[in-house]
Amino acid sequence: MSLAIVHSRAKLGIQAPPVTVEVHLANGMPSLTLVGMPETAVRESKDRVRSALQNARLDFPSLKRITINLAPADLPKEGGRFDLAIALGLLMASNQIPADSLQHCEALGELALSGELRPVQGVLPAALACRDQQRTLLVPRANAAEAALVPGVRVIAADHLLELCEHLRGERELPPVQSGAGFSEPAPVADLAEVQGQAQAKRALIVAAAGSHNLLLFGPPGTGKTLLASRLPGILPPLDEQQALEVAAIQSVCGNTDLDRWPARPFRSPHHGASAAALVGGGSYPRPGEISQAHHGVLFLDELPEFDRKVLEMLREPLESGMIHVARAREQLTFPARFQLIAAMNPCPCGYQGDPSGRCQCTPEQVQRYRGKLSGPLLDRIDLHLGMHNEPFSLSSGEPGRPDSREAAARVSAARELQLRRQDCLNAHLELSGVSQHCRLDSEDERWLERAAERLGLSRRATHRALKVARTLADLEKKKNIGREQLAEALQYRQLDRQPAS
Questions:
Q1: What's the maximum distance between 2 C-alpha atoms anywhere in the chain?
Q2: Which of 7, 137, 353, 445 could form a disulfide with 441 if both were Cys (CB 3.0 to 4.6 A apart)?
Q3: Contact call for residues 137 and 209 (beta carbons, < 8 A)
Q4: Residue among 295, 264, 242 nearest 128 (CA)
């Protein structure tokens, strides 16, 4: 046949839209034309494919007029991921492999000049889409384990183009890669029991984990803010299969192929010099940023006021919606970003405001300017603000009543299960209608909360978030209704709102 059609997949954000590779051989002046909005790396594929076929001792139809179309034409294509599909299309059009051998297949892979298959990024989203279409996915051997994470997909992997040709001709069958084998057990994380003292901060961390609330820790250097934040993933419930696949798909698109880390909840800690594109995503070819790579996990921002204010303000939308929209002239992409924000900061520029030693020499104006780097709308979206203080140093590990991660994780898991049964989401993700339905107060407590919020100067958003925290506190204690005790404790976690400048 002179016309061959091979199915493949592009990489667009974390999506894998279908691409049809059409190869036509015609009589006329020998030439090779590649159309369909290919980028530079895609246009170079014709040279890689020619050399790969020749070095693999396959016939390249050099005496024909070759036209290769990547459809749809308005979809940008990048990288070498279409090399394998183009090569198979040429072989089919020149009758070197059966015409119907690729009817129910999709091909992804880059070709070396020798004909070897090299891995490409974003295979896991393509495997998910391929499973939905009930097609077989042809990939390089190096991508096999990644594609096989998707249950129900049929994956054929090969090291060389010749192996695939023999398989498609029926000369030597390649066994399917076992799919749905699941993720390996995540590596152990640091234990909460290793943090000495800071009982109130540990309780706040458990509350934050139980309701997926955002948490801001502020205090002098050396109080354990970073140490405490790093223990949060250890008390969060493990990812379910769907969540693990979502996390793995994002990491696949970003080129992170460490399968051993994918089942664990992400913990991202970008430097305070990170740009807006690095944090929220973007670039010439938009890719997920730190907040999307923290999807279903933790985003830890240390030295929060040192981040550029414009960068921090870009967090406001994803903190509310759980996704980020990246708009470019050619395309608009949406990345998931349902992360839990844990931030840390010093109380003043030198870091020692309120220290008993009196070493802080910051003026009220300096403190106000330092804290002014954080806007009110951003602070409103952080549910818990907790001050930490230096405690006496001790090498003893026998601190009584010190909770470990296993005990804390059991409490967190029980509270989350209660929330999901009641409202099908965690407390931090409740909409206004959900707050009215599941966070009801009696008339006396409602009036008390209104007076307290007015006295503390809390906005309506901050008050609603305090109410969600109170709901989580009640869930941890397995109480059906929110009481005055939970309301009072929830308001105590708004300490930064009422901290004086000096």
A1: 89
A2: 445
A3: no
A4: 242
Answer whether residue 174 is part of any domain.
Answer: no
CA-to-CA distance for 468 and 207, rounded, in angstroms?
A: 11
Taking the CB of residue 217, how many other CB atoms lie within 10 A of it? 26
Give residue 451's pLDDT band: very low, low, confident or very high (50, 70, 90): very high
Please report where in the chains the tokens 């840390």 appear, as a residue.
Answer: 344
- Per-residue pLDDT tens digits for 316-343: 999 999 999 887 766 788 899 999 999 9
Lowest mean pLDDT among 35-39, 306-310, 357-361, 494-498: 494-498
What CATH number does the domain containing 82 carry? 3.30.230.10
Q: What is the pLDDT of residues 85-141, one digit of tens each?
A: 999 999 999 999 998 999 999 999 999 999 999 999 999 999 999 999 999 999 999
Q: What angle do CA 76, 81, 82 make, to 5 degrees?
A: 75
Domain co-membership, 32 together with 140: yes
Residue 371 phi, psi (nearest 5):
-75, -25
Residue 54 amino acid letter: Q
Residue 306 in tokens: 């040192």
How are beta strands 3-9 and 18-26 bridged, if at all? antiparallel
Rounded to whole angstroms, what are the CA distances from 63 to 50, 97, 428? 13, 19, 65
Cα–Cα distance measured from residue 385 to residue 418, given in angstroms and rounded to the nearest whole number: 25
Q: What would the mean pLDDT of 50-77 be, rounded to a whole number?
A: 92
338 domain residue, yes or no: yes
Encode 43-97 in three state secondary structure: HCHHHHHHHHHHHCCCCCCCCCEEEEEEECCCCCECCCCCHHHHHHHHHHHCCCC
> Does residue 245 sit in the same domain as residue 121?
no
Q: Give dist(CA 415, CA 426) in Å, integer.
A: 9
Asked if residue 374 belongs to a domain, the reply is yes
Q: Measured between alpha carbons, how far is 324 from 337 in angstroms, rounded to an integer?
A: 6
- The region of weakest confidence among 43-47, 53-57, 261-265, 306-310 is 261-265
pLDDT at 381: 92
Which CATH number does the domain housing residue 328 bear? Answer: 3.40.50.300
- How far apart (Å, rounded) are the C-alpha atoms in residues 202 and 196? 10
Are 346 and 461 found together in one domain?
A: yes
Q: What is the structure's pLDDT at 261?
A: 66
Q: Please give the residue range of the domain that contains residue 238.
A: 192-391+402-498
